[in-house]
Amino acid sequence: MPYVAVKGGEQAIQNAETLLGSKRRGDPAIPELTLDQIEQQLTLAVERVMCEGSLYDRELAALAIKQSWGDLVEAIFLLRAYRTTLPRLYYSQPLDTSKMQIQRRISSIFKDVPGGQSLGPTFDYIHRLLDFKLMAEGEVAAAPESKVINEPVPRVIDTLDREGLMQSEKGEGDSASSEPFDLTRQPLTFPAGRDARLQNLARADEGFLLSLAYSTQRGYGRNHPFAGEIRMGEVEVVICPEELGFEVAIADITITEVQMVNQFKGSKELPAQFTRGYGLTFGYNERKAMSMALVDRAMRAEELEETVQGAAQDVEFVLSHSDNVEAQGFVQHLKLPHYIDFQAELNLVRKLRR
Mean of the pLDDT values across residues 264-280? Predict the structure, then answer.
């Protein structure tokens, strides 16, 4: 810790930590925020931290939010750091999202889709006005109940697939026939396959991805996307322990899956068809999953022989700058002492002026 050399040394650092704890707690006369309250009432914050922290544990995510004083990027840092201490016992089988227990499912490309549209919990159709009734802490109206859909709901994109209008996702040279890339255990290298790119985007900062996705819609990506399908619900996590020799379901987790449809005029080898951008996140992270899908499609520009003219299409730029844990570390290191470096530049400027 470079600031040990500063007047006050280690005691000053301990005092700063104690002060942080006091500020984080706030007025002792007000009841302390519990992890259950954070988990149940700040659900979207908890699920963002789980997603970008790469650890599906609602209680630990709530703890990280409380410890970080509500700073979600710091909470993501804490959760990801804790994750590195955990042993890896098994790899799960690929999630079968076609068997998702649907809570929300919409499509903007077809009015009538097999299985129907389900609006679910969303801000999309309500007024963006402050609700002062929430200050009164009154009773909440009971949520309407609907019939549980137990049978699998077919994907909307399959309709285009059956007509041969959707580009095949097989054999894209992205480890399709080998073990998937593991970004948590392998360093990112370039060129990066689509499996590595999608993993990077799933852990990427939501705000960064949102800005890049917005740029593609404003002309810096040549994309004209349609929301082919947005679905949120529970899927089963399955492992296959070698000692057992058969699959075992270990949990149900909430995920959001987005498939964007983009028109593609074709190339020398490919006919005119639709291509897709894909996004999948832990929890209910619809904005993040949509942004992920838009940027995923933008980064396929070179593969599809499209002109690269925007930041979102530059794979190395996107993947190298999307991680908020790395970004905050590099930006915030500027707060550490740089006395010697600055003195060298100060002396140089004085000599030049003379």
Answer: 81
